[in-house]
Automatic annotation (TrEMBL):
One of its GO terms (molecular function) is GTP binding. It comes from the Eukaryota. Pfam families: Arf (PF00025). GTP binds at G13, N69, K70, S71, E72. Keywords: GTP-binding, Nucleotide-binding. InterPro entries: ARL2/3 (IPR044612), P-loop_NTPase (IPR027417), Small_GTPase_ARF/SAR (IPR006689). This is ADP-ribosylation factor.
């Protein structure tokens, strides 16, 4: 993306797979965490897992890019809510929260532009 090469691991959020996430933490610079912002039933799970990730020692220096997916639908999780949770967990961490939708590629481009800009700084 924009002449940058990233190695990306797409890890399932399934509860049975989460224990294996640590296998991918070493040398990680960014965590891209995707939340279905329309899924009110799993809201507490999404937020709990996000807090756990933000407190992992191996990820303490990582920047977090959080994507609230399906923003074209009724969003039940707000950008402000996510930012507040992360700031409580680790106040000095670089974070960015974007609402996005697959229907508008500009929303994804904006998020990845932040990632590139953060990588340069």
């Amino acid at each position: 993306y924009n002449d940058k090469t990233f190695t990306v691991w797409d890890l399932s959020g399934n509860v049975n797979v989460r224990n294996f996430w640590r296998c991918y933490f070493m040398n990680t610079k960014y965590v891209i965490y995707v939340i279905d912002s329309n899924d009110i039933a799993r809201k507490e799970i999404y937020l709990s897992v996000l807090i756990q990730l933000s407190q992992e020692v191996e990820l303490i220096r990582c920047s977090f890019l959080i994507l609230l997916n399906k923003s074209e639908l009724n969003m039940h999780i707000s950008i402000d809510e996510i930012e507040e949770i992360i700031k409580k967990s680790y106040s000095k961490r670089k974070i960015a929260v974007f609402s996005c939708t697959t229907r508008k590629k500009e929303s994804i481009i904006e998020a990845f532009d932040w990632l590139i800009k953060d990588d340069i700084s």
